[in-house]
Amino acid sequence: MNESKLTEIIEKYGSDTNAIVAILQDIQEEFNYLPKDVLMKLSEEINVPLSRILSVSTFYKAFSLTPKGKYPINVCLGTACHVRGGARIMEKIERELGIKRGETSEDLNFSIDEVRCLGCCGLAPVMMIGKDVQGKLSEKTVVPILDQYKK
Ligand code: FES
């Protein structure tokens, strides 16, 4: 664990225990997930029981207690994307990467999750890879897109 990174994050918010969500967001941003040892250290440092930190961590869907890929893939299965073949795109990505939704690739490069509407239905079917929105997907175009993110 990179302790100095955690110290930096805690210092940013001072002793404000109401800032737990913001602190967890920063930790997630830094590590791509919420590592258990980091949460234990956080609990000690800000004097908040680990149980409370864990309950906040599991309440918000944006947080993950398991490692996420360097490029988290969020495939939209909202109505507009579903109608335009979002489920087939999801299956293609799962086959291509050899992992299922909710899983992370062994090299920690990718993880796959499904989301309901990314707010750009005009581009359906849509996915996000990291911070990039990729729209108007087809089973054909999705593979070269994934290739761009492979190491
Ligand atoms: S339903 Fe997919 S972006 Fe809205």
Topology:
Blueprint: H1 3-13, H2 20-31, H3 36-46, H4 50-59, E1 71-76, H5 79-83, H6 86-97, E2 110-115, E3 127-129, E4 132-134, H7 139-149
Parallel strand pairs: 1-2
Antiparallel strand pairs: 1-3, 3-4
Task: Report on the architecture of this protein.
The structure is a single chain. The chain has 151 residues and is α+β, with helices and mostly antiparallel strands. The chain contains 7 helices and 4 strands. It has helices at 3-13, 20-31, 36-46, 50-59, 79-83, 86-97, 139-149, and strands at residues 71-76, 110-115, 127-129, 132-134. A hairpin with a 2-residue loop joins strand 3 (127-129) and strand 4. Helix 1 (3-13) packs antiparallel against helix 2. The chain starts with a helix and ends with a helix. The model has no long low-confidence stretch (mean pLDDT 92). The structure holds FE2/S2 (inorganic) cluster. The site of FE2/S2 (inorganic) cluster (FES) has 11 residues, from helix 5.
Distance between the termini: 24 Å
The sequence of SSEs as H and E is HHHHEHHEEEH
Main sheet properties:
4 strands, mixed
Radius of gyration: 17 Å
Would you count the extended β strands for me? Answer: 4
Give the averaged pLDDT, no decimals.
92
- What is the CATH topology classification name of the largest domain? Glutaredoxin
CATH architecture label name of the largest domain: 3-Layer(aba) Sandwich
User: Which ligands accompany this protein?
Assistant: FE2/S2 (inorganic) cluster
The number of helices is: 7
Name given to the CATH homologous superfamily of the largest domain: Glutaredoxin
- In the predicted model, the low-confidence regions spanning at least 5 consecutive residues are none
Count of separate structural domains? 2
Strand-pairing-aware structural class = alpha+beta
CATH class of the largest domain: Alpha Beta
Order of adjacent strands in the largest pleated sheet: 2-1-3-4
Percent helix, as a range, is: 40-55%
Residue share in β-strands: 5-15%
Molecular shape: elongated
